[in-house]
Amino acid sequence: MEQRRTTLKTLLTAFAIFSMIFTASLGVAALTNLGNIGRAVKVIALIKMKAIQPVSASQLIEGAAAGMVGSLNDPYSTYLAPEPFESLMEHLKGSYGGVGLLVSMEKENRLTVVSPFKGTPAQKAGILSGDWIVKIDGQETTNMTLEKAAQLMQGKPGTKVTLTVWREGLEGLKDYVLTRQIINIPSVEGQLLKKNRDIAYINITQFSENTGTELERVLKELGEQGFKGIVLDLRNNPGGELEAALQVASKFVPEGPIVHIVEKQRTETLMARGGNLKVPLVVLVNKGSASASEIVSGAIKDTKAGILVGEKTFGKGLVQTVFPLSGGAALKLTTAKYLTPNKTDINKKGIEPNVKVELPQELEREIALTSPNEDKDPQLRKAIEILRTKIK
């Protein structure tokens, strides 16, 4: 009798857990698939009754939620437990403890560097866009989630983390021992070029919640000094907030579409908000320019508001939405793709620059760590050359 009561209690617990999960995620549609529901309830019941490893109801719910998201086979969609969710929010605000890398899960489930942030431990050590991070503190990264990788790389400032990297052209693997620090990155920096004082050089390192305001400030300060052309540097900019991208693009493109957001059941066109600067513009891009960077550069290219110089961009044309859940957790889900003003889908394709100029790998780190170098940087030189033909 006691065994029967225990079994019944376990089955009721399993059904309750499963009902909570499916009520939240599938609703009425779940009722059309009773066979699968029964199988899932049985799995939960067997785990509770037979598994030697103890597991709580909350652990089962988290595991089931993560499994459902995993079935999408989308590296950008994930269930976020409270700690990774908190880290993500800190990152979007522009301040966190870590090494300063944006990573993506590329083909063959390789953890690949999209770009290192300027002035961070990762960039100073020489990690480059396109590097494959094979291990983090000895843990293999193949099939590791992006959130798990970020969690391993982030940590208390002053502590160390070892990244084992493979790079094309590099013999064997290379270990980088990095000391974590507070990554607090002003997203916009600007100055007049030293040898071309009528050209403003503006570097946007990421798109965070303050980027639009920071760009306003930089443009005002440089405007007081006077400039006749702009170089907008989006190289190794991994993206960030959509709203920030809209604010930046609105400064440069004429009235009209900036981006088309294609969701499951509707398409929304987001428009420029005015501000279209009436000066010649060149935008520098490379393989580390991703996501929000591609929204801005795609809008500028399609509207002919400026000329893109450099290398093909990364090719991330997907939009993620974060849905907070109870208990401090969240669901990060790919909910849309975006198209450029001319309705070009750039996902996994990237944006080709108007003028292709490659940056030799041996110069990439040196140039990224220094102020704009008008002598050594071939992409910047080409931008200046183009602007010189347009500035009156």
Question: Could you explain the architecture of this structure?
Answer:
This protein is an alpha+beta fold and 392 residues long. The protein folds into 3 domains: 2-70, no CATH class; 95-184, PDZ domain (Pdz3 Domain); 188-318 and 335-390, 2-enoyl-CoA Hydratase, Chain A, domain 1 (Alpha-Beta Complex). The protein is built from 11 helices and 19 strands. Strand 10 (188-192) and strand 11 form a beta hairpin. Helix 1 packs across helix 2 (34-50), helix 1 packs across helix 3 (57-70) and helix 8 (242-252) packs parallel to helix 9 (292-302).
List keywords for this structure.
392 residues; Pdz3 Domain; single chain; 3 domains; alpha+beta; 2-enoyl-CoA Hydratase, Chain A, domain 1
Separation, N- and C-terminal Cα atoms: 94 Å
CATH class assignment of the largest domain: Alpha Beta
Structural class: alpha+beta
What is the CATH homologous superfamily assignment of the largest domain?
Answer: 2-enoyl-CoA Hydratase, Chain A, domain 1
Approximate helicity band: 25-40%
Order of helices and strands: HHHEHEEEHEEHEEEEEHEHEEEHEEEEHH
The total count of strands amounts to 19
* Form type: globular
Strand order of the largest sheet: 10-11-12-15-16-19
Mean pLDDT: 85
Which ranges are low-confidence, i.e. pLDDT below 50, for 5 or more consecutive residues? Answer: 7-31
